[in-house]
Design goal:
Shape: elongated
Largest sheet: 10 strands, antiparallel
Strand content: 35-45%
Structural class: mainly beta
Number of helices: 3
Radius of gyration: 40 Å
Distance between the termini: 21 Å
């Protein structure tokens, strides 16, 4: 029976060497495949005696088997790629990828629920804006929420198509205006006022807001002005502020003082920058913006024009006037105040703050309909939108005629109240009742000319998307024609306790198994995943020299086993011939 054992053992050897030959040929065939991990072959023998626990049995042959060993943890060489979105991982991490189902819903690509992993980082942008590698797998990562600008925690397919520009957060406002003129007689003059057109600012969530500046000249010193920034949207987001700005006799800036604390703001040295902090509360988040007025002694920025000069900037927003000598007092809007146009839509207007007693008051107008032109109006505290602001009034609906005049007024808060025009509305300020005369308001039948250059913001509000780039930390950045870059998302990488325990599937990809352990997914660098080299791909780990040498060895071993088979056959033939003779 030992001849049959030898024959069986030789056959198992042929089978084992066939496995080795298959692995070597696969390695050689994939020597140029990006992200391919070369396999090796391990051999193990089976001893017949070990099966029964006794000495070797003459009935059961010894044999050998071959096992394919994965080397997913083996690092390939990083090679330069012509694709700018290609990536190579230096470390043990793998790209998280998805496979499409082949179906679409409403033109949207659908994906399988199975999560795949790969080292093939040769990604490119397909026609739908997804990042797809050469094996057809879609790159997964963390996308930026278009509403909040924050990185989502959910793993999803990265898409870089038609990325919209998010306006940048405002940090600086700059004023460039001659707010008034120097008097010919400093002891006999009429105090001047100046209010800028509102400027749009943006918070950290790219939400727009409106800020305006209100200037009032001192009645005792023509070189001294009070300035305050206010919420020109009427939502009370700007914290109360009051600064005193003093000019030199030539109209240049001399100094700035915080009226609340009496402290000098900045330096009074010639050439020093003059900047006032403005604090805003946007959606519960404090945002500080610097108001740049110019420089001490500077002839640009904020100045006073020479006496009689026509270079004085025109005030863009009117302020209310308050008469507290009567009972009830009267709050009036300036005559010929143009809120907007008769053909416009989504327009708004907020008067500059006026102190009624010690409480600042504005009137807020908001267009609610374009045809007929309909607006709502109410009194507000421009620095406090809470119920304890000290300012309240009914909300009124005002319909305008096509010529811009008032057609009708309705009390929305108390519909049963009859309202005859805008001259007899009511408001409460500091607990006292006031009559609001807003009859000076009307709409223009022609386009309004607005000076939007006197107060500007450093926010960039628009940009055309030009493409995307990937940074070494996995950040996927949108590039715009204005030179700005903004985060689209981040590449996700995953590590396993035993990457060699993964299950290999088509396209240099893997799926998790019990042997690999649980996926540990995060951004680049988390969980020991490693770093990225952008513009490179990971070459195959096939070692052609070693594999060709091993191929010769496998060939010799295969031939040797076949020799055992033929020899055993000859011995059996001899045995048979013995009986026949």
């Amino acid at each position: 029976m030992s001849i049959f054992n030898a024959l069986s053992t030789a056959v198992s050897g042929i089978d084992a060497q066939s496995t080795a030959f298959t692995n070597l040929s696969n390695n050689i065939a994939n020597s140029q495949t990006v992200g391919y991990k070369a396999d090796s072959t391990a051999f193990q023998d089976f001893v017949a005696g070990s099966l029964s626990g006794n000495s070797a049995s003459d009935d059961i042959s010894d044999s050998v088997s071959a096992l394919t060993v994965q080397h997913v943890d083996q690092q390939g060489t990083a090679s330069a790629s012509t694709d700018s979105l290609a990536m190579s991982i230096s470390g043990s991490g793998l790209f998280d990828v998805s496979e499409e189902t082949g179906a679409t819903t409403a033109g949207t690509t659908q994906f399988q629920n199975e999560q795949y992993y790969t080292r093939n980082g040769e990604f490119y942008e397909n026609k739908d804006g997804y990042l797809v590698n050469t094996a057809g797998y879609y790159l997964d990562g963390y996308m930026v929420n278009s509403q909040t600008g924050q990185l989502d925690n959910n793993l999803t397919q990265i898409n870089i198509a038609n990325v919209g520009f998010r306006p940048t957060e405002t940090t600086t406002l700059t004023q460039s205006a001659a707010i008034g003129s120097l008097p010919t007689d400093s002891t006999n003059y009429t105090p001047q006022t100046y209010t800028t057109a509102p400027v749009t600012t943006y918070d950290a969530d790219a939400e727009p807001h409106e800020v305006g500046l209100s200037w009032t000249q001192s009645s005792s010193n023509p070189l001294v002005w009070d300035v305050s920034a206010y919420d020109a949207g009427g939502t009370g987001s700007i914290a109360a502020n009051d600064y005193q700005v003093t000019f030199n006799s030539d109209g240049t800036l001399a100094s700035v003082m915080n009226k609340d604390t009496g402290a000098t703001v900045g330096s009074t040295t010639t050439g020093s920058a003059v900047s006032i902090p403005i604090s805003a509360d946007y959606n519960g988040i404090t945002q500080t913006m610097q108001l740049d007025l110019g420089t001490i002694g500077g002839t640009s920025g904020t100045t006073m024009a020479a006496a009689g000069s026509s270079a004085v900037s025109t005030s863009q927003v009117t302020a209310l006037t308050a008469d507290t000598t009567t009972t009830p007092g009267t709050i009036s809007m300036a005559a010929n105040t143009m809120l907007g146009t008769t053909t416009g839509s989504n327009q708004s207007y907020v008067t500059a703050p006026t102190d009624v007693g010690t409480t600042p008051v504005s009137v807020k107008w908001t267009q609610t309909s374009a045809s007929p032109a309909t607006w709502t109006v109410s009194a507000v505290n421009p620095y406090d939108s809470s119920s304890s602001s000290g300012v309240s009034s009914d909300s009124y609906s005002v319909v305008f005629n096509k010529d811009g005049s008032v057609a009708s007024v309705t009390d929305l808060t108390n519909p049963s109240t009859t309202v005859s025009g805008l001259s007899s509305l009511t408001a409460s300020v500091g607990g006292s009742s006031y009559t609001m005369d807003l009859s000076g308001a009307s709409l223009s039948t022609t386009a309004l000319s607005t000076d939007t250059t006197s107060l500007t913001s450093d926010s960039v509000s628009s940009g055309t998307y030009e493409g995307a780039e990937i940074e070494s930390d996995g950040s996927i950045m949108a590039e715009f024609d204005n030179g700005d870059t903004q985060l689209i998302g981040k590449v996700a990488l995953t590590n396993f306790a035993n990457v060699d325990g993964l299950n290999a599937v088509d396209g240099q990809a893997y799926t998790a198994t019990a042997n690999s352990g649980t996926a540990q997914t995060g951004v680049v660098g988390d969980n020991g995943t490693g770093t990225l080299s952008v513009g490179y791909v990971e070459s195959s780990t096939t070692d052609l020299t070693s594999d060709l040498s091993s191929l010769i060895v496998a060939q010799e071993a295969y031939s040797a086993n076949t020799k055992v088979v033929t020899t055993a056959d000859e011995l059996l033939q001899t045995t048979i011939a013995m009986k026949q003779s």
